[in-house]
Design brief:
By secondary structure, the chain is of the alpha/beta class. It contains 16 helices and 17 strands. The protein starts with 5 loop residues before the first strand and ends with a helix. Mean pLDDT is about 95; it is low at about 155-165.
């Protein structure tokens, strides 16, 4: 059975995010076999799914460039704590109780939330990545799933002759083979070395080699806290990015999360190696990592920078609309400059830049021949009116829109949320299963 045809008729607005950043008014979209085949100001054919576009705006689907989907199970579990205490006393003990079934349930909840919020693709790093893939496909999202890799929790043991404790290369290879066996264009495998201070040089270089040979993304946490950078510099005489560059780890296949505590030299190194960055402003603020990621400097060097939420345990929300508003306000405040990160650039970060970071072509924009990954916003909402032309529309999307304003979400030409209803799952059944989750983690 093939993919359905979809007709989005006479949309009030289409924010294309194409090369010219066109915003169209009163046009219709026709989708066939997962591809946008027609953008017309006239009539379009009938379809399996038809939507009246009055009071609606179509935008490219949003990308969550860094999250840990199954951590939705720990939403609200440990808040308002210092980062290291949060990890060592609450999160890591709780994670020891995770099973494959629990990770599937948590990832399913995350995918439901993201789909409802207009997210069409996400980059994940966590345990049991097969379960994240299964959940994403159940809902219908695109996913780049990274195998989480940690071979030591003790930075003092990080040395070339260190023997692996936890990470099994065979398990990573099995996951890569699993994804290949699915043969589904919506799924890509990735490798996720947790951080420079939790992975040995051997592991990092194995990841690089595997990534280069297999065309895989390497997803890693970098320079999230000042203490992390200071400790690394004390131990190795170099800061994290300098060290990774010296051992040859940094390439254009690396997507680095956070990148808060960077020197100008480190920013230049990342730019010269074509490293992509996932900026997670809300998580950074909530965990009080201090400082602000210098992403305006990165953008000034033409680096690819997208937006991530991080996991729900350190954000509580997987809403990229919320991240868009936060990132715009944070950097205006930090730079004392209201012109920094204008609304159109923030929307770029959440759409076309996110897809670019993941190496997914023909996505992140609305155009003939592009993948039909689209979020449809209901404009008949008090917080989204009035609309002062195309510029005002983009401003409203970034500064006023919420995930709850999304009417429908289409991924790869399939409606996964249609008229605010998730198409493929019984939500009530899933909510019923979640009721028992707090008991599992109560004593962790």
């Amino acid at each position: 059975m093939g993919k359905p045809t979809i007709a989005l008729k006479k949309l009030d607005w289409i924010v294309t995010e194409d090369l010219d950043r066109r915003v169209l008014k009163g046009c219709s979209l026709y989708i066939e076999d997962g591809i946008i085949t027609e953008i017309s100001s006239g009539s379009i054919p009938e379809a399996d799914y038809t939507l009246d576009g009055a009071w609606k705006a179509a935008i490219p689907g949003l990308v969550n460039l860094h999250t840990h989907a199954a951590m939705t199970l720990l939403r609200g579990y440990a808040d308002d704590m210092p980062l290291e205490e949060w990890l060592e006393k609450r999160i890591w003990p709780a994670e020891r109780r995770l099973t494959a079934d629990l990770c599937y349930l948590g990832a399913l909840l995350a995918c439901m939330e993201m789909a409802r919020n207009g997210t069409t693709c996400f980059l994940d790093m966590y345990y049991y990545p097969e379960e994240t893939v299964k959940a994403a496909l159940k809902i219908g999202l695109r996913v780049v799933a990274a195998v989480g890799i940690i071979d030591t929790f003790n930075p003092e043991e990080r040395r070339p002759d260190f023997k692996l404790k936890i990470f099994s290369r065979r398990s990573a290879e099995r996951f890569i083979d699993y994804v290949k066996g699915l043969g589904d264009s919506r799924v890509k495998a990735a490798l996720g070395p947790h951080a420079p201070y939790t992975c040995s040089d051997d592991t990092l270089l194995w990841v690089k080699e595997k990534s280069e040979k297999g065309g895989l993304i390497s997803h890693i946490h970098l320079a999230e806290t000042r203490r992390e950078q200071s400790r690394f510099e004390k131990m190795y005489g170099r800061r994290e990015i300098e060290y990774l560059d010296a051992i040859g780890f940094l390439t254009g296949r690396v997507v680095a999360a956070h990148c808060v505590w960077l020197s100008p030299r480190e920013i230049n190194i990342l730019a010269s190696r074509n490293v992509k960055v996932a900026h997670c402003p809300i998580s950074n603020l909530k965990l009080a990592v201090g400082g602000v990621a210098p992403i305006t400097d990165m953008i000034g060097l033409n680096m690819t920078v997208g937006l991530g939420t991080d996991g729900a345990a350190s954000n509580n929300s997987l809403d990229i609309f919320e991240a868009m508003k936060t990132v715009a306000l944070l950097h205006k405040w930090y730079r004392w400059d209201p012109t920094v990160l204008p609304a159109w650039k923030v929307l770029d970060m959440a759409t076309v830049e996110g897809y670019k970071a993941l190496g997914i072509d023909k996505a992140g924009y609305i155009g003939v021949g592009a993948y039909a990954d689209i979020a449809i916003i209901d404009l008949k909402r008090p917080g989204l009116q009035p609309i002062h032309g195309a510029t005002g529309l983009v401003s409203n999307i970034v500064y006023a829109c919420r995930g709850s304003d999304v009417h429908s979400t289409v991924v790869d030409g399939e409606p996964i949320v249609w008229d605010r209803r998730i198409v493929k799952v019984d939500e009530d059944e899933i909510y019923g299963r979640l009721v028992k989750v707090p008991d599992i983690f109560r004593e962790a």
